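REQUEST FORM: STRUCTURE PREDICTION
Request ID: SP-0412
Submitted by: Lab K.M.
Chain count: 1
Length (residues): 215
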Amino acid sequence: MNLTTTEKYALAAFEANEKMSSIQKQERGICLVASCIWDMVEAEVIVPDTKGKLKVSAPLPETLSYCGSVYEFLAKKPRKPEDVVLEYTHTLTDKRMKSLTEKLVNELAGKALLTVEEQDGLLGTKLCHVDNSVLATDMAAIKNLNDAISPEQFMLAILLLKSGVAKKLLDREQLSQLKKAASQDKGDFQPYVKNMIAMTEAMISSSIAVFMVTQ
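STATUS: Completed
RESULT:
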C-alpha cells in the first residue's frame, strides 16, 4: 500500500502513544503540520515564491485530502512555512489542529490501518490502535541507516526524531545513529528534498522556541 509521509508519521506517532490527542501536542503537532506541507510540496501542489512564502500552484489531489484545511489556508494568501505551523499549533483554540487530526484519522481508518476506540468517562479519550505492519520497510530503513535510504524515508526519520516519537520506537544505538545521520549533509538528495528537510527543521525549531516563551 502506497502511503504518504504524513500517513506514515501519524501511524508511527499513534503506535508510540495511542491517544488521538497526543499527535496534536507540542513537537508532534508541529511535525504533523510540517509533514502535510512536505507532502504538498512533494506533490507540487504548493511551491515557494521568491520571498520564501508557500503558495498554491495546483488542485489538491484526493490522496492528500487530509491536507485540505492547510491547502485552503494557503489558498487565501501565500504564507511562510513557520507561520502556517504557528497558526495550527499556537492559537487560543485547537480548532484547526483538531480538524486536521480527525480528517487524517478518518482517512487511515478508512484504509483499515487503524481503529479508533472511544473510552467512557468524563474526558472521552479516543485511542488509535495501529496496524504497524505497513511501516515495517520504512522503519527497517530508519533503524539501519545507510546510503540506500530514500529521501522520503529520511524525511520520515527527521519527523520521528524532531517530534520525539523516535525515542519510543528506536533503541539507544539506533537513536544515536539517527541523530548523527540527521546532522550530516545528504548531498545525493535532490535539492528540493534537502531544502524541504532544512525548512522543516527550521519550522520545528522556531515553533518550539515560541512554545517555550509562551509557557
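NOTES: The radius of gyration is 17 Å.
Reviewed by: T.R.
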